């Protein structure tokens, strides 16, 4: 059961109304998470900025979706997990790799290494070692791609934690928009 009520441009006030009106005018509809985030224009604005910025990440999207699956499996946001599994499938990630991502790994050693890094960023960033970063570079990851992992994890922590707080679950759809985004 949702704990927070979604807002619309008609029910929101101030900056939240402006943000929602802009999103509706550009996208036609907005998802439950975004409309509910509007209770805090700071959170909604931060989410939108981080989401846009991560759209320019250097990580291959098939890898970032597997990272997202691994992080959401740990965090426990079913709405986010479903969304990222669907996105991974749409990008051609096979079911075995989706299952492996859910378990925090991959059959590909390079992808397994970056998923491991992401889970460390999520759980215990002090455990990351110089040797680990060197090994990621040896797998072909640039410093930018390695740094992008922090952004992917941060975005997942933000969306997952918000959805869990708000009580947004796969079965608790409130509006016709997309599950987690705009």
UniProtKB/TrEMBL annotation:
SUPFAM superfamilies: AhpD-like
Top-level division of the source organism's lineage: Bacteria
Domain Carboxymuconolactone decarboxylase-like: 45-115
Pfam family, one: CMD
Protein's name according to its UniProt entry: Carboxymuconolactone decarboxylase family protein
